[in-house]
Design brief:
alpha+beta; 41% helix; 3 helices; five-stranded mixed β-sheet; single chain
Length: 104
């Protein structure tokens, strides 16, 4: 069985997303957004999420997909599990965030 592993940077951002949604739209809306996000993570292994490879210019192997207003970056870990590497809002400049988070 393949497990989903939330990497530290992604976990931090998911917490921020929840807090922002809760403050802006209330707990019920924030809970629904995060529950949907985690349900989407579970669909990766069944290929029920349309993921694309991260472009070569980023210098990082992995995949990404959109979940509502966020871009989720993931990779297959050495043990076969799925690692959720980053979750960024669609307005964040992606190449700058890769450089910041992956030391490029």
């Amino acid at each position: 069985m393949t497990n989903i592993r939330i990497q530290e940077a992604a976990s931090f951002r998911i917490d921020e997303v929840y807090q922002y949604a809760r403050d802006r739209w209330g707990s019920a809306q924030a809970d629904a957004y995060i529950t949907g996000l985690f349900a989407t993570f579970e669909k990766i292994t069944a290929h029920e999420v349309m993921s694309r490879p991260i472009p070569a210019e980023f210098g990082v192997e992995g995949f990404f997909f959109r979940y509502k207003k966020h871009i989720v970056y993931w990779k297959e870990l050495a043990n076969g599990d799925i690692g959720i590497v980053a979750v960024w809002h669609e307005r964040m400049h992606q190449i700058d965030k890769f450089r910041e988070n992956f030391g490029l």
